[in-house]
Amino acid sequence: MSRVVLKKANIFKGDLILVNAESGFKEPEGFDLVPVLGREDILLERRAAAALEKLVEKIGGRDNIVPVSGWRSQGEQQDIWDDTIINSGEEFTRRFVAVPGHSEHQTGLAIDLGLKMEHIDFICPEFPYDGICGEFRKIAPKYGFIERYPRGKEDITGIGHEPWHFRYVGAPHGEVMAETGLTLEEYTELLRGYVLGEKCLKSAGGAEIAYLPAKRCEDTALEFEDDCRFSISGDNIGGFIITRWRGQDGNP
Asked: CA 134, 139, 143 angle in degrees (round to 5)?
């Protein structure tokens, strides 16, 4: 058996943390950030970067798809917010730029992508739904990426439709969210109804997903069978999302 002790601080870490206007980002002591797609100045969390590299390689998109913006510090997000307010006004800024401290880009799990061209708009890069970008979208969920701010969900996400902004949530969550059409807000809310030990959500690939509310005053210990692969993520709200595979590899 494998035994894992979850501390309360772990609620704010993991691939499935929800960062939005209501849930700010609690920056950890350190990031495992690496350059992505040949850009030394654009960084992602290591797992997200590796998955993105595999995804772009799979579709032969290295010459056509370019990273525009990855991890941002609090200061960088503040500068972008301030500059966009000055150049494009408050209404546009609030539609397309997250408030500093509440941006997914600060997690290292979000990437803005663009179609390679002579001029790329930093705030709203071109990333259409056809061609090589369409191919990217088709298999992105398998590699753990979702389009984070889809059309028609603006009232839920609090951000305008951003076809260029992708968020790494890991496997199998990308595929489950794509199949159900849920945003990260809706997905994490759904999972809170699948309490560990009572019932679980099963993915098409056989993974079992459940939610564990964090205890208020003590650490939480979990045990996993030797033949069970597992991943654990905080939700940045009040608990943990537990994913288990029995004798399977959870990565594409």
From this structure: 135
Q: What is the largest CA-CA distance in the chain?
A: 57
Query: CA nearest 167: which of 224, 211, 107?
Result: 107
199-246 pLDDT per residue, tens? 999 999 999 999 999 875 567 788 888 888 999 999 999 999 999 997
Please report where in the chains the tokens 């206007």 appear, as a residue. 21
> Which neighbouring-strand residues pair with 198?
none
Q: How far apart are CA 141 and CA 214, in angstroms?
A: 28
Q: What is the mean pLDDT of residues 26-36?
A: 87
CA–CA distance from 113 to each of 19, 127, 180 (Å)?
19, 7, 24
Number of neighbours of residue 95 by Cβ within 10 angstroms:
17
| Pairwise CA distance, residues 129 & 29, whole Å | 38
Contact 247, 168 (CB under 8 A): no
Catalytic positions: 162
Residue 101 in tokens? 């401290």
The type of residue at 94 is R
Strand order in the sheet with 162-168: 65-69, 110-115, 162-168, 145-149
Identity of residue 165: H
Which of 47, 41, 51, 44 minimizes the C-alpha distance to 71? 44
Closest C-alpha to 162, from 113, 107, 217: 113
CB atoms within 10 A of CB 32: 12
Confirm if 71 and 108 have CB atoms less than 8 A apart: yes
- Cα separation, 72 vs 105, in Å, equals 5
